[in-house]
Amino acid sequence: MSDSQSVSAAVAKLYNTYPFPPEPLLDEPPPGYNWRWNWLAAYNFCTGQKPQKQDIRILDAGCGTGVGTEYLVHLNPQASVVGIDLSAGALAVAKERCQRSGANRVEFHHLSIYDVEQLPGEFDLINCVGVLHHLPDPIRGIQALAKKLAPGGIMHIFVYGELGRWEIQLMQKAIALLQGDQRGDYRDGVQVGRQIFSSLPENNRIVKYEKQRWAMENQRDECFADMYVHPQEIDYNVDTLFELINASGLEFIGFSNPGFWQLDRLLGKAPELIERAKNLTERQLYRLIELLDPEVTHYEFFLGRPPITKADWSSDDRLLSAIAELNPCIDGFPSQCIFNYDYQIVNLSTAEFEFMQACDGQATVAEILANVQLGLDEVRKLVKQQLIMLTPNLSEQF
Q1: Which of 138, 154, 209, 367 has fewest C-beta within 10 Å?
Q2: Is the pLDDT of residue 397 over 60?
Q3: pLDDT in tens, 16-57
Q4: What ranges do the domains of the chain cover?
């Protein structure tokens, strides 16, 4: 057995022992939404406009127990979904989960990401959360997925960051040292890890970090095992992350938490430093931000296969002729106080509220503004906040 095969076998054994994520199975659709798994909201985030089609194919690459897969099915009612995973035990849970909640437009395959070419056709949306960093060769993995992404399609990826996981890495190494020859016995690893935490002094840095960040979810052995006794993990920084991204051959569209990556958030009191930072490349700027705020436990971002057409709503005529509708991932509407796509509270003015009430997916911006006192810049603000989505007028296509 090659090194790569033995690592894959060890990973499969972990998730057969502790199927992950351990979320409960429900006899109804899962609550709420994750906008990154909603094709309309994700495509709008990436391009600034609503996608032209909704009858798409979605791949959940490394689906585990199907928590994300279930959302992908329920949030995308016209899509067909495929889930693949290395762990037969996790797949069995995924199948039962989707069956019980009525997520019936999905098929599962016991398959490594490396072998994804065995699936027929291409996919418009590929979701790969918490998987690439557990592969022996993440570059080979991302390249295999990239080949299955359709032109104009987008890929959503989540991988670990080294700066915010430093204490986790220390604990992983400590457990491995104490396990010795028993490393690979994951139940023993969990037991050793829990003994360490209960024995360390209260003011110990690793204990404090665990209590601040992870203790609630790590009450479950599945979560504890995934975090502390995983046989294979590669943590990234901005430089190594972009080596992975560049190897994919795809276009980097952006991080899904753009607010974190604003330097003003950290150095807003020093305009001369903000000015100096203008000499940095985009990648150097990202690196500077994570060095100054080393809480990055993961990177979540979108890649795309060209052609990715990004909307430009700076033209008044183009904006006025566009068809407007609500972002499907907002909560609490109709009300002037709502949750946006990222579950942050937004307070709408009366005019903004009236405008959004008229966004029915049929009326143009011009038609709505004929009855609502709102300026075009305020409409652009709603677009930028991703509270509404626009479809370009076909005669105005860019």
Answers
A1: 367
A2: no
A3: 999 999 999 999 999 999 999 999 999 999 999 999 999 999
A4: 3-162+235-304, 164-228, 316-396
Alpha-carbon torsion 36, 39, 44, 47, what sign? positive
Q: What is the 3-state secondary structure (H, E, C) of the chain?
A: CCHHHHHHHHHHHHHHHCCCCCCCCCCCCCCCCCHHHCHHHHHHHHHCCCCCCCCCEEEEECCCCCHHHHHHHHHCCCCEEEEEECCHHHHHHHHHHHHHHCCCCEEEEECCHHHHHHCCCCEEEEEEECCHHHCCCHHHHHHHHHCCEEEEEEEEEEEEECHHHHHHHHHHHHHHHHHHHHCCCHHHHHHHHHHHHHHCCCCCHHHHHHHHHCCCHHHCHHHHHHHHCCCCCCCECHHHHHHHHHHHCCEEEEECCHHHHCCHHHHCCCHHHHHHHCCCCHHHHHHHHHHHCCCCCEEEEEEECCCCCCCCCCCHHHHHHCEEEECCCCECCCCCEEECCCCCEEECCHHHHHHHHCCEEEEEHHHHHCCCCCCHHHHHHHHHCCCEEEECCHHHCC
Alpha carbon 286 to chain centroid distance?
18
d(CA 168, CA 209): 9
pLDDT greater than 60 at residue 221: yes
CB contact at 8 A, 381 and 362: no
Class of residue 267 by CB neighbours under 10 A (exposed 0-12, middle 13-18, buried 19+): middle
Show the tokens assigned to 228: 């502390």
pLDDT at 398: 42
Q: What number does CATH give the domain 3-162+235-304?
A: 3.40.50.150
Distance (Å, rounded) from C-alpha 178 to C-alpha 191? 11
Can 3-162+235-304 and 316-396 be said to share one CATH topology?
A: no
Q: Which of 126, 125, 144 is nearest to 249 (CA)?
A: 144
How does strand 337-339 pair with strand 345-347? antiparallel
Could you give the CA distance from residue 383 to residue 47 in angstroms, rounded to a whole number? 11
Determine the CATH number of domain 316-396. 3.90.930
State how far the Cα of 318 lies from the Cα of 295, in Å rounded to an integer. Answer: 41
Closest CA to 139 of 236, 243, 5: 243
Side-chain half-sphere CA neighbours of 293 within 13 A: 14
